[in-house]
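Board notes (copied after class):
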Amino acid sequence: YKMISRYSNTGSMKYHTASGGYFNGQQKKAWLIGYNLVSEYNLPAKNTSKMFTGLAAQLGMDVFNAIEYNYATGTLHLTTDDHNAKSVDLYRMVPILHTDLKTNPTGLSISPTGDTAAIFGDNTITIKNLATGKVIKPATNIGSTGFLYRNAFFFANDGKTTYYPAESNDAVALMKLNLATGTQQKVLQVKGFGPMEVLADKTMLAGFESAYQLNTASVWDLKTGERIFSKSMDTDGEYDAQYIKVSKDKQRVLIARNGTAYVYDINTKALVSQNDKVNGIDKFGSAAANNSLTVFITGGRNGNVDAYDVNGGKMYSMQAHTSTVR
């Protein structure tokens, strides 16, 4: 190979060095990648002809008091700046809805259609149409809600029932409320909740029952309230720094804690696979898994993303951006 020309200090990546790129000899252009910036560099002219930036939705605060993802539509619902409700299409990375709730909710759940919100305040719930701002059902007293358990606020997929956590002195109950009748019903009760995740079809809840000297990875049937899987975990370290998810086919559960990812068969309780070389979960970051539980991913506070094969080994590492990966 013969070097034709060398280019340096192009100015394409003003604040970050290029981390990759693509060269097209016929067009005599190079595309340089640096974090979220992509620049088109014209080789004969020796200048940057275009700059491309990824579409992004302004979310506001870095910490959300409510966040919910609709797997069917690819829509992320969250509240930021304390009282602004926002919906973002993650497939297209464009905002769909931005409305002022006129209150600072302790919890929020969004209907599958994305137009109705159950807004939880101090001991109350208000049902509101987000598109029009009209109150469908005024504030109703439901008792103390567990504002720390944001993943426990969610709608059933039929849009007729919403779930929420209710706190007492020594326990947390997952409740469900029929929006038409106002009937409340206890689904299950634990001493305390750690991280949790609801299956996309809203039939199962995977979570940790966490309290003093107690940390049990569990799966509950939301129709019956029955605990159909449990695995005692260690009680050392941060209870927030762990992850659990049920597979889409409802046959397996992934549990990650202290640098190890385990996959168990829910019915037989047998260990299916294990990777003991994953990064510890950053309590200020996030973790996720694909629907088949074959890939486990962690996101850190510095924008780093690491993906692992649950059977062993790391698949890749990348710098997604420079902020916390939520």
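Comment from the instructor: The chain has a mean pLDDT of 82. The CA atoms of residues 31 and 321 lie 18 Å apart.
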